[in-house]
């Protein structure tokens, strides 16, 4: 039953702290799984895809009544998984040794199969593939991105060891037609695209942490922070770190000197374990001091304790509305439920995001702070940026939005300029310039999740307040905002 018990937890929409990420990342980042994450993902994905039909078959076959009579306790989700395997999987068998639940379900095999046949007749379907589902194959990512982890290896070595991936081509289109090709990305160094069916996760390089699966847009923050060779960051902070994609990516940019470090903060106790596992795998024993993890709320840190930190990545919890892989889970939510979460929730999230960013902008030597979300909503993106730019303490300390040339200038999609009118009024050029300090990625259309990043830079202007005065102002975040953050912690 282990496989089904492990898969069961992923069948319901994520209710823990944070967004939890896409279904795929939730499963692949769960450190405690005994079964292969790939196997579990395939099972959960397919069960969710056919869930509506499985429910109908279960109801019509009256199998639940039999299970109750036999006093066999089985949750609905577990039953969906088992019935899925019996009817919808290619092997058509329950992956379970001898077990009373298996026996009880197999006693009903004929009835279950009869209901399945009726369903196929109703939809004139020859196989499960022809049945209508809420989830089209469009919900699958058109391309899978991975980066060669330069802490452990080099692209040259990786390609030498994996000659299968030898056909390097520039990624001219995100529509990869077939496995067998590998595409170099135009924007992020050491990032490659492959067909989603490519078996990367079984390669020794993946298992050893030499390559890391990471969405392209999610690689933007570390790249924006570290792209400029004149910025010699040695100490940086990742304020909201788990599961650690951006932490490990940031670490890969640091010079390999003894004092180079990424301070990674994570306040959630479960997620901090995943962060530790990922960082250990990515750095290995040789570079184990490259990342220092602290299990704490980032806003409780004292910026004066980090006098050498010059750059920060702030990727706080958000609505996760850009994660299209989640469509399969969203398909389970009632429309009404979806509507209810909107504006109020987004504003609460924005309040929290503002608070974390304001804290990040207090670090005395910081000169660059990259803010990001995987949300498509302006509430959590440009509007947070505008509120920060209009904040009197932040203005006084010399923080500004960076110019486009230091924020992946060739990437075509920038911030939404209309959102900046509160700052620049009708001055189109100024709005455009501000929007240029931000990048956006559209879900699917840009070959991955929806994403937003903005880069703040500090110019040493003469009129700015001394940093210690700013530090004293951190406590002006009112109690209401504190409460919101507490409440908020249920989202990501
Ligand atoms: C969007 S996720 C970060 C994803 C991560 N940057 C990555 O690329 O793998 C946000 C994370 O921030 C954590 N978090 C939220 N508020 C925090 C705070 N005040 N201090 C530290 N961590 C926080 C959440 O628990 C969650 O794990």
From TrEMBL:
Compositionally skewed regions (Acidic residues) per UniProt: 476-492
GO terms (BP aspect): rRNA base methylation
Stretches assigned to the SAM-dependent MTase RsmB/NOP-type domain: 134-459
UniProt keyword list: Methyltransferase, RNA-binding, S-adenosyl-L-methionine, Transferase
Gene Ontology terms: cellular component: nucleolus
Active site: residue positions: 374
Pfam families attached to this UniProt entry: Methyltr_RsmB-F, NSUN5_N
Region spans: Disordered: 467-492
Record-linked InterPro entries: MeTrfase_RsmB-F_NOP2_cat, MeTrfase_RsmB-F_NOP2_dom, NSUN5_RCM1_N, RCMT, SAM-dependent_MTases_sf
Source superkingdom: Eukaryota
Gene3D superfamilies, per the entry: Vaccinia Virus protein VP39
Coiled coil: none
A GO term, aspect molecular function: RNA binding
Binding-site residues for S-adenosyl-L-methionine, renumbered to this chain: 240-246, 266, 297, 315
UniProt cross-references to PANTHER family, sorted A to Z: 28S RRNA (CYTOSINE-C(5))-METHYLTRANSFERASE (PTHR22807:SF4), NOP2 YEAST -RELATED NOL1/NOP2/FMU SUN DOMAIN-CONTAINING (PTHR22807)
Record-stated family: Belongs to the class I-like SAM-binding methyltransferase superfamily. RsmB/NOP family.
Name of the molecule in the record: SAM-dependent MTase RsmB/NOP-type domain-containing protein
Lineage of origin: Eukaryota, Fungi, Dikarya, Ascomycota, Saccharomycotina
């Amino acid at each position: 039953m282990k496989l089904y018990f492990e898969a069961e937890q992923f069948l319901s929409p994520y209710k823990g702290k944070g967004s939890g990420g896409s279904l795929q990342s939730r499963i692949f980042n769960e450190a405690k799984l005994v079964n292969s994450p790939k196997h579990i993902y395939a099972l959960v994905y397919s069960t969710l895809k056919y869930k509506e039909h499985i429910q109908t078959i279960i109801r019509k076959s009256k199998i639940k009544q039999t299970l109750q009579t036999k006093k066999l306790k089985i949750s609905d989700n577990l039953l969906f998984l088992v019935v899925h395997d019996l009817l919808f999987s290619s092997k058509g068998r329950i992956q379970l040794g001898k077990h009373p639940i298996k026996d009880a379900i197999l006693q009903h095999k004929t009835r279950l199969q009869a209901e399945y046949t009726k369903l196929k007749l109703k939809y004139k379907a020859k196989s499960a593939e022809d049945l209508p589902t809420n989830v089209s194959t469009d919900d699958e990512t058109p391309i899978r991105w991975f980066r060669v982890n330069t802490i452990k290896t080099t692209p040259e070595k990786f390609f030498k060891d994996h000659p299968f991936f030898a056909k390097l081509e520039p990624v001219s289109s995100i529509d990869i037609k077939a496995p067998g090709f590998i595409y170099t990305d135009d924007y992020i160094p050491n990032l490659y695209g492959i067909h989603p069916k490519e078996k990367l996760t079984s390669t020794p390089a993946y298992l050893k942490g030499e390559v890391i699966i990471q969405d392209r847009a999610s690689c933007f923050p570390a790249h924006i922070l570290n792209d400029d060779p004149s910025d010699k960051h040695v100490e940086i902070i990742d304020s909201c770190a788990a599961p650690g994609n951006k932490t490990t990516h940031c670490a890969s940019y640091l010079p390999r000197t003894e004092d180079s470090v990424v301070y990674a903060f994570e306040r959630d106790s479960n997620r901090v374990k995943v962060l530790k596992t990922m960082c250990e795998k990515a750095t290995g024993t040789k570079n184990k001091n490259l990342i220092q993890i602290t299990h704490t709320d980032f806003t409780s840190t004292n910026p004066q304790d980090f006098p050498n930190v010059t750059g920060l990545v702030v990727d706080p919890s958000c609505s996760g509305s850009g994660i299209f892989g989640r469509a399969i889970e969203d398909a389970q939510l009632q429309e009404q439920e979806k509507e209810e979460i909107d504006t109020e929730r987004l504003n609460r999230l924005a309040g929290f995001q503002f608070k974390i960013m304001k804290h990040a902008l207090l670090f005395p030597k910081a000169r660059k702070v990259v803010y990001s979300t995987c949300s498509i909503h302006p509430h959590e993106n440009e509007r947070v940026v505008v509120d920060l730019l209009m904040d009197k303490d932040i203005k006084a300390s010399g923080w500004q939005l960076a110019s486009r040339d230091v924020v992946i200038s060739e990437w075509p999609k920038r911030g939404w300029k209309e959102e900046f009118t509160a700052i620049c009024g009708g001055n189109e050029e100024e709005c455009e310039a501000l929007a240029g300090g931000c990048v956006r990625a559209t879900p699917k259309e840009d070959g991955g999740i929806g994403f937003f990043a903005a880069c703040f830079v500090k110019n040493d202007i003469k009129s700015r307040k001394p940093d210690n005065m700013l530090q004293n102002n951190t406590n002006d975040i009112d109690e209401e905002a504190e409460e919101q953050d507490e409440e908020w912690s249920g989202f990501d």
